[in-house]
Write a structure and sequence with these properties.
Elements: E1 4-10, H1 14-27, E2 33-36, E3 49-53, H2 54-62, H3 66-69, E4 74-75, E5 78-83, E6 93-98, E7 100-102, E8 105-106, E9 108-112, H4 113-126, E10 130-132, E11 136-141, E12 146-150, E13 155-163, H5 170-174, E14 179-195, E15 202-208, E16 211-218, E17 222-230, H6 231-238, H7 242-253, E18 260-262, E19 267-276, E20 280-281, E21 284-286, E22 292-293, H8 301-321, H9 329-357, H10 362-376, H11 379-390
Parallel strand pairs: 1-2, 1-13, 2-10, 5-15, 13-21
Antiparallel strand pairs: 3-9, 4-9, 5-6, 7-8, 11-12, 12-13, 14-17, 14-18, 14-19, 15-16, 16-17, 19-22, 20-21
Helix pairs in contact: 1-4, 1-8, 8-9
Bound molecules: flavin-adenine dinucleotide.
């Protein structure tokens, strides 16, 4: 472990590793990057897969990570949305999205989390990033440096500490940064299923009264399920035996893809909205879920985190190339300004959609179905939604355009 590092990143999840690679590739071998995470040498098995928006895929391409996952990535070719009660026999389609953000470039791909994390880990190791299988325990900030202490006792002096330690970030708390938000009282059940018929790259979102039930295409005849229930109901369903779980799954999935079989582990994640009151403090930055946790209804949490990565990396690389302090206040302010508005608007949008759809009111159901029907008839609005979901609107950092830093 080096005694000094230019940047120390706490958390070797998607956000932390992607930032480390971007900085190392942007600033070269002389720029020391340390990533510390106790899970680095024994990754926690993750039952989830992620929708990777086009902009995030461009970032992974620019970082040399996409080639490692592309053979396991399923393009989402179209998406249909239905709004119905659980007992409804027919689930009419209210909205369909199809198309590409550029010729030959789908608006998103589905990738299993484990594969993506392994590819990031491999790239980080190959790029000479110091990977420490240890937790960051505490830190003390001075005018030019942060003294960081790891749980195992090692210490590192750095110009910037980046907390990419997830939604329950202990480092955010140590930095005295509060959060705003609330729990939804809902949990997302996740699993992977195999089915008889081909999904043809179609993603399906059934808005059921308890919340969205998403069927997201994976490579082969497999799909990833993200299934929202109240937390009490999710706990009950998760505890069922295989036959009981299969029955509940099939009631929601339907038979459009033929016989189903569960092929993956099951897990459940409590859902909430949580946004940090500030993304920065002195020589300290929050990144990814440590800065914001949102409802997975639009599959955007990780994509938001990767937008943080692209913005912070660009601000730091531009400063360092001018000989400026890449952990100083100017760089951090630029990062925060770039990310705050986008994060708040995405957080509030997912919150609004979840509230509108996760309920049993017939009046609201009529209102939202009229709304969906209107969007369905307005191609320009649909295109805007696709580009927004793909992450390619607004002031886009270079990495999200697929350009090297
Ligand atoms: C059901 C569900 C489905 C989702 N689907 C999608 C989707 O389709 N598309 C999408 O974009 N997003 C999706 N998301 C959101 C996405 O999974 C998260 O936004 C993403 O995993 C966050 O990545 P991260 O690197 O910020 O944090 P994490 O993945 O939580 O990583 C944090 C890391 O920090 C480490 N750590 C913790 N404490 C310390 C410490 N003190 N020192 C060092 N390391 C520490 C942990 O071990 C962990 O490895 C979904 C979320 C859920 C719940």
């Amino acid at each position: 472990m080096p005694a000094r590092a230019d940047v120390m990143i706490a958390g070797g999840g998607f956000a932390g590793l992607a930032l480390a690679i971007a900085l190392r590739q942007g600033l070269g071998d002389a720029f020391t990057v340390v990533v510390a995470d106790p899970a680095l040498d024994h990754p926690i098995a993750d039952a989830r897969s992620s929708a990777i928006a086009a902009a995030a895929r461009r970032l992974f391409s620019a970082l040399g990570v996409w080639d490692e996952v592309v053979s396991h990535a399923q393009p989402i070719l179209d998406m249909v949305i239905s709004d119905s009660k659980l007992e409804d026999v027919v689930r009419p389609t209210f909205l369909t999205f199809a198309g590409e953000v550029a010729p030959g470039e789908p608006f998103a791909h589905m990738v299993e989390n484990g594969r993506l994390l392994a590819a990031l880990h491999g790239r980080a190791a190959a790029d000479g990033i110091v990977l420490a299988s240890d937790a960051v325990a505490r830190f003390a900030t001075g005018p030019d440096r942060v003294a960081v202490t790891l749980a195992g006792g090692a210490s590192v002096e750095t110009r910037l500490l980046v907390a990419a330690d997830g939604a329950r970030s202990a480092l955010r708390e140590q930095a005295g940064i509060g959060t705003v938000g609330w729990s939804y009282g809902q949990s997302a059940i996740v699993t992977t299923v195999a089915h008889e018929r081909d999904h043809r790259g179609r993603a399906v979102e059934h808005f059921l009264p308890a919340g969205p039930f998403a069927i997201l295409p994976l490579t082969g005849r497999r799909s990833s399920i993200v299934w929202t229930e109240t937390t009490a109901e999710a706990t009950r369903i998760l505890a069922l035996d295989d036959a009981g779980f299969h029955h509940e799954l099939e009631r929601r999935f339907g038979l459009s893809l033929g016989e189903l079989s569960a092929v993956g582990r099951r897990g459940a994640f409590p859902l909430g909205l949580k946004v940090a009151r500030s993304f920065i403090a002195e020589r300290f930055a929050l990144l990814g879920d440590a800065a914001h946790m949102i409802h997975p209804i639009a599959g955007q949490g990780l994509n938001l985190g990767l937008r943080d990565v692209a913005a912070l990396a660009e601000a730091m690389v531009d400063a360092a190339r001018l000989g400026l302090d890449c952990g100083g206040a100017t760089v951090l302010e630029r990062y925060q300004q770039w990310r705050r508005f986008d994060t708040l608007s995405m957080g509030l949008a997912t919150d609004g959609i979840n509230r509108l759809f996760s309920n049993r009111s017939d009046v609201l159901r009529l209102a939202r179905d009229i709304g969906l029907g209107m969007v369905e008839r307005l191609p320009a609005l649909k295109e805007l939604f696709i580009h927004e979901a793909a992450g390619i609107t607004g002031e886009v950092p270079r990495l999200l355009k697929g350009e090297a830093l």
